[in-house]
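Hey team,

Filing this mostly as a record. A colleague (T.K.) asked me to run one chain through the structure pipeline before their review meeting, and I want the input and output archived in the tracker in case anyone asks later how it was produced. No errors, nothing strange. Just documentation.

Input sequence:
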Amino acid sequence: MATKKSQGTPSPETQAEAMKIARATQKPGQSKEQTKLIAQGIQHGIEQYKKQQKAKSRERDKLRKKQARDKVQDIEQTTTDVPAVEQVVVSKQHWLPWLLLVVSWIGFISFLQLG
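Output structure:
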């Protein structure tokens, strides 16, 4: 089972990056303790930023998954609706054109026999 890192210890990369930034902004006459405190503040800021980015990433993933799920449901719904629409169109055939065709053929045949 994987163990979680404790919240109190930042990663070595974060510590190194914070110390690098603190040294870059160090003022003349500043003690090592003050620089260390500044580095801790920078570490805290970096951790907060990473937490915010992870939260935003999770929200984006949730939204993307939800949109994908909705899209699949829409596709499934439209595929089930298509046969129902076709059945309705097929069942709406009217008898009047067939009746007119039969009557016209009967009239044509009777015209030929009488004529």
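Quick notes for T.K.: The chain has three helices and no strands. Residues 33 and 39 are 10 Å apart (CA to CA).
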